[in-house]
Design goal:
41% helix; Rossmann fold; 12 helices; alpha/beta; transcription regulation; six-stranded parallel beta sheet; Peripla_BP_I
């Protein structure tokens, strides 16, 4: 029976049919632990997926895409959150390995590698999410964060904004590699436009939406006030929305946020975002992991997935001086 259930070769069609009929009649359910001991290729048909927070909409969408790829390979996905705690990350990886998962897709704590965790995972196929593997021979799949933030800067500059606040981590203080890339990409575009970093209000190390709300409210109450805000993460975007609404400025200061979120189009105005391709990231991460598990031994590669600007209203608010300028077409009657 086990050879039929595990799909092993050299079993006659007649035998396969008899075993299938017996399975249906007896309502047989295979024992995964016992099956793992006997499977010809040594696999358990399980993957580990570990990120900061499974409740985050982006992480949930990535997981869903991975599950779709795994379903086609008759593989189950065991998922967990490490909460940016390296000790918890290590413990969960050890738990995955104790369950003999065939591979792990990992979004490292704080965007960095816990070398203790990586040492534990050696010998297991590994793909990184959102972090580039420095000195680690592994594939990585991540959003092109610098280019995405550059899109936001180009968009705001094109509307006439010159005093744009940046809300998010910066390279010198960021444990979050992705946020650091967003800062570099955004500031590079402003520099190309002749705007120096000293002219840009920077709010960094904001813990959550509430701390972002507090700091942005303080910024817009003190002069000189920015005409636009770029937030490098969804918590900052939520804080910006609250601060502007509470101060009656949600229709006078532009906001572009990095990362989409549910119901962003229902705000007043709708929130313009740089949207990550969660489905594409999850699909490619799973494809790379299965390729490694199947024996692909090529050089590890980093796959940068483009992000997309979604215009919904908040990012299309012009600075007041620019909004007062009539267009040529507006003057024709």
């Amino acid at each position: 029976m086990s050879r039929v259930v595990n799909g092993e070769p050299n079993v006659s069609a007649a035998t396969i049919e008899r075993v299938r009929q017996a399975i249906e009649r007896l309502r047989y359910q295979p024992n995964p632990d016992a099956a793992n001991l006997k499977r010809a290729n040594g696999r358990t048909l399980t993957l580990g997926f570990l990120v900061e927070n499974l409740a985050d909409p982006f992480s949930a969408a990535v997981l869903r895409a991975i599950e779709e790829e795994a379903w086609d390979r008759k593989t189950a996905v065991i998922s967990a959150s490490h909460g940016c705690d390296p000790e918890r990350e290590l413990q969960i990886i050890n738990n995955f390995l104790g369950r003999r998962v065939d591979g792990i897709i990992l979004g490292p704590a704080k965007g960095r590698h816990s070398f203790r965790a990586l040492e534990a995972a050696q010998g297991t196929s590994l793909v990184f999410l959102g972090a580039l593997p420095m000195g680690v021979p592994a594939d990585a799949v991540t959003t092109d964060n610098a280019a995405g933030a550059g899109q936001a800067a180009d968009h705001l500059l094109g509307l006439g904004h010159r005093r744009i606040a940046y809300c998010g981590a910066v390279p010198a203080s960021a444990g979050d590699v992705a946020a650091g890339e967003r800062y570099r990409g955004f500031m590079a575009k402003l520099g190309q436009a002749g705007i120096t970093s000293s002219d840009i209000p920077v709010l960094q190390n904001l813990r959550d939406a509430e701390s972002a709300r507090h700091e942005i409210a303080r910024l817009i109450r003190s002069g000189p006030r920015p005409t636009a805000i770029f937030t490098a993460g969804s918590a900052g975007t939520a804080g910006a929305i609250k601060a502007l609404r509470e101060n009656g400025m949600n229709n006078s200061i532009a906001v572009v946020g990095f990362d989409d979120f549910p119901h962003a189009d229902l705000a007043d105005p709708g929130i313009t975002v740089i949207a990550q391709d969660a489905e594409g990231i999850g699909r490619i991460a799973a494809e790379r992991l299965f390729a490694r598990m199947d024996g692909f031994s090529g050089e590890p590669a980093t796959h940068l997935i483009p992000a997309t600007l979604k215009e919904r209203g908040s990012g299309e608010i012009r600075p007041r001086s620019a909004s007062r300028r009539p267009s040529v077409s507006a003057g024709i009657s």
